[in-house]
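Dear colleague,

Following up on yesterday's call, I've attached the two folding results inline so they're easy to grep. Please treat them as preliminary; we haven't cross-checked anything against experimental data yet. The first protein's sequence and structure tokens come first.
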Amino acid sequence: MTKNFILLALIFFTTLSFSQDKKVAVVSFYTDKTIGFSDLGIGSEELITRVANLRNNPDFNLTPILEKFHKTFFDEYSKKLPFQLLPEAEVLNDEAYKNFVPKLEGTEAELSRYIVYDGYKYIYEGILGKANEEGAAKLFSEADGVLFIEIHFSLVKGFGIGKTATIKMRANYRMALYNKEGKKVFAINEAARSKKTTVMVKGIPVLSPKKILPMCESAMDKLMKHLDKKLKKIAKKADKKL
């Protein structure tokens, strides 16, 4: 065994150990009942009204989908990440976290569009979200970073054209990691389309809960399989900024 090989092996295992010793707190975990439609190229008042009606319909319940993803993330995906997650109960029961008031966009009625997993807060992350990112990062002295996780759904074109076109659902996943200073380490955006479809009636997609919920479930199932395969590559994007 050469000296160079031994040196490379030591560097590899030192780096691996360093990553595994890092601790991260998941601070936001939610989905959104407002279905996007910008990819359809349709912006009629009728479509906007139907999307709003779907969002406000109690039968359009995305909670089971969120709960299934939450279980898979913590039971399976978390084991493939290059850092440890702080115990969820420890995060959610932390007094500083419970008392944290994030800066939110929109009125209380507008914020009702979000379904937040039990115990978490809706914390906006992204463009103009610096105050939330830095504030959340300061909540846990024992954590080296904080993780924001969100799921969104949007309608996309399927097969056909015009009034005979079919529509699919796309599940969009975002996982963003910030270090203890609130600086972004990485943001992962992945998506998958449903096998199930809906149709257009007079140029407008059918948006009943009975039709749309199975499409969301189908898209989410495909996304979870996709993530399971890609997580090892995703994990490598956690760099020394953490």
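Below is the second protein, in the same order (sequence, then structure):
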Amino acid sequence: MARVRNTASQRVKRGEGVQNARLKWLALAVLCLLPGLGALQLGWSGQSWVPLALYPLVSLISLLLYWQDKRQAQDNAWRTPEKVLHASELLGGWPGALVAQQLFRHKTRKLSYQLVFWGIVLVHQVVWIDYLFLGARFLPFA
């Protein structure tokens, strides 16, 4: 029996899109606030515009990695290693990964994966809190 793919567009057509989408978009916006403000301040201060460019770029890469891994999972093919997904998140792609998790319903139930993912999000938040409000007191590279 052939497997039927349940694409995001098919789920939306049937009303099965991302559950609580408004609340999740709001949470994403709140989580992106500190990194966005921090990256803007870095650029405006003349230090570097790289973080402002890196977050969207690596987020897109993360989203594509999740999409590929989800398709590979559906096809019982060789999977993208979790350490690759986590590396992309750590490099700044966690917003794209969060969107991909909800959009593709991928990696949302695996507790060990989610613990590492949210740990990475927390690290990003702490780094930007330190930079914005504590004068980069704990960051040796800033």
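For the second protein, one point worth flagging: The chain is about 70% helix and 0% strand.

Best wishes,
A.L.
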